[in-house]
Design brief:
globular; 227 residues; 9 helices; mainly alpha
Length: 227
């Protein structure tokens, strides 16, 4: 209920404010981008993180080593410049968002791998010893379901991560010409705005969305009904 209520509130607010000025129209378009792009990043990240994390934790040691190397390589690169390269090379916004989802998926794959390994170390007798030696259904029920909690909690920050990255790209002057209007413009280009109110509302909206997603995913991870 909290996540749904937050979404309805923000959509209604954007609809009321959009006719007032160009800045409020940019806020409404930024809300649409934040929600759709955030959900897309979540979907792509989960599609990558879950299989990679499982294989790294329970599959061949060489796969674990390869994932560790890739994650170390990606984490050593400035995320802002990686995102700028993605955006410059992507002919469409969807390609840029999917590339960010893949980047996020690598981070979460390592998080999932570490959580599965931690659960094995804490209670090695309560879970199967490896994916290759256990029926898939039993593996998913006994091990993966217990390891998804941190992944869900991390995923709840995806909209905040996207907005902060977008604002940093704007502030650094790395946003491509003709890119769609997002909250990064309001937050990362203070000289271009005539009123601070859209930027303040954008920041508050990011906080509200993050809190709502965090509450939703924490309850999902604990097996409770959503509020």
């Amino acid at each position: 209920m909290l996540a749904a209520g937050a979404s309805v509130l923000l959509i209604a607010l954007a609809s009321l404010l959009a006719p007032l000025s160009l800045e409020w129209q940019a806020y409404a378009r930024g809300l649409e981008f934040a929600v759709l792009a955030g959900l897309s990043i979540l979907a792509v990240a989960f599609l990558i993180a879950i299989p990679l994390g499982m294989l790294a934790a329970s599959g061949p040691r060489s796969f674990d080593t390869a994932l560790r190397f890739v994650c170390d390589l990606v984490s050593s690169l400035p995320t802002v410049f990686v995102a700028a390269v993605f955006w410059a090379w992507s002919s469409r916004t969807l390609g840029y968002v999917c590339a960010l989802g893949a980047l996020r998926g690598l981070e979460q794959a390592w998080l999932l791998r570490c959580e599965i390994v931690r659960l094995d170390a804490d209670d090695p007798e309560s879970v199967p010893q490896g994916l290759g030696r256990t029926p898939l259904v039993a593996f998913l029920r006994q091990r993966l379901s217990r390891a998804l909690g941190p992944l869900f909690v991390s995923a709840s920050f995806s909209v905040a991560w996207l907005t902060a990255l977008d604002a940093a790209l704007t502030q650094a002057g790395l946003r491509p010409q003709g890119a769609i209007a997002t909250w990064g413009l309001a937050l990362g280009a203070p000289a271009a705005r005539t009123s601070p109110l859209p930027a303040l509302l954008a920041a508050a909206s990011v906080v509200l969305i993050t809190v709502a997603l965090h509450a939703l995913f924490r309850r999902a991870a604990s097996g409770e009904e959503p509020p």
